[in-house]
Design brief:
With 249 residues, the protein is of the alpha/beta class. It is built from 9 helices and 13 strands. It is elongated, with a radius of gyration of 20 Å.
Length: 249
């Protein structure tokens, strides 16, 4: 029997892949993932057997990785960001449990989209924050909107994943409406697409400007709160250190 590595490749920049993930890829005979992810790490896996499946082929991808590992191969199943965050680690463990398969596996963490995009924008996640996926393939629109309302009401800096697709154009604006009662129009918000990839783009805008902005599935949106400011061109959510020091003086 072989081994299954569940490997996080971060945003895709080779120097942001953790050493343990690089070592797992080096030790693997087979690497399985979406073609985009395989292309991003091509220099690390050019001598490996590579198998790509399309978007929507997640179950096929996981089962194939498990099957090949069970047959004696050392396999890396890869995902961008962290494979345990909106990705395939959970599904892989479910399939192993459901099929009662005893298999040696290791989950290797990575830089999430939230972390990567926050670093480009500044330090917007310096205080309490949450993440919310706008994909309604596995979660109902009603549930997404309910969670958005709670995020807005709770005052959390919020990181939105899977912001907009060609088939799901309006949900993001419905989500933003749920925040509207709890955010001033001037609240700083960050938009990042293709973080740490050649066509990376980022900008900081006011909350009110988001309603007239077009996004896509490769965009991550960070909505600030009342503690979020723009300082020297960067988005910063203040924890209160400067206020505490001023009070002591």
């Amino acid at each position: 029997m072989g081994k299954l590595y569940l490997v996080s490749i971060g945003p895709g920049a080779l120097d942001l892949i953790v050493p343990r993930a690089s070592e797992a890829l080096k030790n693997s005979e087979v690497v399985i993932g979406h073609q985009l992810y395989l292309d991003l790490i091509h220099p690390l896996i050019k001598d490996k057997s590579q198998i790509a499946t399309p978007w929507g082929g997640e179950l096929e991808r996981v089962d194939m990785a498990i099957e090949k590992a069970f047959d004696g191969k050392t396999v890396s199943l890869i995902s961008s960001g962290d494979i345990g965050v909106y990705a395939l680690a959970g599904l892989a463990l479910e399939r192993l449990g459901n099929n009662k398969v005893e298999l040696d596996f290791e989950i290797i963490p990575g830089v999430t989209s939230a972390n990567a995009c926050a670093s480009i924008l500044g330090a917007p996640l310096a205080l309490d924050f949450l993440t919310l996926s706008l994909s309604d393939l596995l979660v109902s629109r009603e549930a997404i909107l309910k969670r958005a309302e709670s995020a807005g009401k709770g005052g959390f800096v919020s990181v939105l994943y899977n912001v907009q697709s060609s088939k799901r154009k309006e949900l993001v604006y419905e989500v933003l409406e749920k925040f509207k009662s709890y955010r001033s129009p001037e609240t700083p918000c960050g938009i990042v697409s293709n973080a740490f990839r050649p066509d990376e783009k980022s900008r900081i805008v006011a909350f009110e400007d988001l309603f007239s902005t077009q996004f896509d599935m490769l965009t991550t949106l960070i909505i600030g709160n009342e503690a979020t400011k723009v300082i020297r061109g960067k988005m910063v959510t203040q924890r209160g250190y400067s206020f505490e020091n001023a009070a002591k003086k």
